[in-house]
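Late entry, written up from scratch paper. The run itself happened at the end of the previous shift, but nothing got recorded in the book at the time, so transcribing now.
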Amino acid sequence: MEFEVKFLPEGKKISVQDSSTVLTAALKADVDLVALCGGRGTCGKCLVEVVKGSTPPPTEQEVRKIGRERIAKGIRLACQLKVLDHLIINVPDKSRIGRQKLVIMGVEPTAKVSPNIKKLYFEINPPSLEDPRGDDVRINEVLSHLGMSNFSLDYTIIKEMPKILRESGWKVTFTIINNREIINIQPGDKTKDCYGVAVDIGTTKLAVFIVDLISGKILFADGIMNPQIKYGEDVISRIQYASQSEENLKELQRSIIAGINELIERGLMETDVRREDLYEVVVVGNTAMHHLFLGLNVKWLGLAPYSPVIGMSYNIKAKELGININPSGNVYTLPNIAGFVGADAIADVLASRIHEKEKITLLMDVGTNTEVILGNKRGLWCCSTASGPAFEGAHVRYGMRAASGAIEKVKIREDFEVEYITINDEKPRGICGSGIIDAIAEMLRTGIIDTSGRIILKNHRRVREGGFGKEFILVFKEETATGEEDIVITQEDIREIQKAKAAIYAGYMTLMKKGGLKKEEISEIIIAGAFGSYIDPLSAKIIGIIPDLPTSRISFLGNTAGSGARLCLKSIDYRKEAEEIVKKMKYVELAVERIFEEEYINAMFMPNSRLEDFPEVMSIIKSPINVRRYVKR
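Output as recorded:
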């Protein structure tokens, strides 16, 4: 039996089988609805209002996340609410993903353009009664003079070749890939029309760049939210969703392919580039995003020992994946290192050049997962920590993505009153990662919390007892976009951030100990990634996300994954370099490291229990010291 669900204010209608969830209906209807946890009921973000229709009793998750009083007013979790009647559902603004603030560009070193694609113009002797050799033989003769006699012809080109050769008077341009295959024949001299696409598939965002493969110039750069977000905002949620069925896996693959094609289409409309002149796509992403793009089974990425299906680089025909460039064009994927350190980390290294540095450098690509790479030209250590769910809104009561209305900067005055900045200067809807870090750092600096993370401020209008302990009010409801609720930082929110920052700190400390290094040997910290671009380095040091190095030794490079993808698109030399980097990388699986466990416990304090490691930070923290050393040193 099917029931109709109508979503307000859009008015979209969709029919679903009975016992489907409202979240399932929203996905089918393409309704903008947050699903941070992928529908498991743990984040409490997919709040909807039942306007009309009968509903089943609330689940335990709903009672825990919403409370019976609000449930009585029709507020439910879309992922928990089953459709047993025709429903009219209102989706409030605070439950929508909204317009995300995306970082597309990143620092990119100068590269000599030497692409995998070549365009060569030739004037070929036509056949005659005295010389009736085949067209392909004539082409072979011309190419043999350039040392490319063992070329192959794409089947699509073979069918078009006779007509193009004759109508052009045997004056044509060949497009050759990998120095061995002709993938296009065009009449006349088209050697200047040679373009490619670099793609960075992030867990949160999708970035696409169209690049001139003659000059190396970026002609188009844009990004959107990763369309897979509606199936779960973190890697594990998507792995679980894709592992449920073959159709779910195909659905995730189709969504990312559609997103890439959407951005390519937008690029073609904004430039003079023709689709047939787009000959290659280079793709980077973490291992899960890489596998979902290729439609590979990701089940084993979520199970120990977390091994990927493929770790090497691959070349695949664009038409096999449904990428809308020249049908005979190529898609190149960079190699992966391990289940949670993928091609994007290789791209980070290529763009940051830490593998060429003399001194020890710490590179952190802060995102939904944080990739940590430590080393220099003599070797690199790497690991991945699950940091993003808290920093990007999950598990934080009023946390949200970096979209319109998100609080992104926070300053707390000496009288404990709060100043803040929101994205696009809109009224506050919640708080994003950079704002959360600022807020907790400021609460520690001003003595609202102590170094254990406990709220200790008393007798102030911004501190109160909430349903789950003390809360600090950042924004009173009268100032918010909805006017309904105060935006607060709860004691539990602080604990979630402590766990996330402890994971990052313990990650790089584990690498340092595995490499036999000391903190004072780190000469530079490089922070990459979209989220990293907005972190205040002082706030990050105050709560202990990064080592207490002088700010002058901390640099922010933006989207280096996208930069690395462009480098590999422009030059085959960088692809060879990527293969060499993989050989240098020593991956550390933190799940089996006792060092990580010990450092994680130490780092639950702020900045952590080893206060001597943070002399600059401790000099500005006003809260009482409340630290116990849980781990023997």
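The first helix runs from residue 22 to 29.
(Scratch paper discarded after transcription.)
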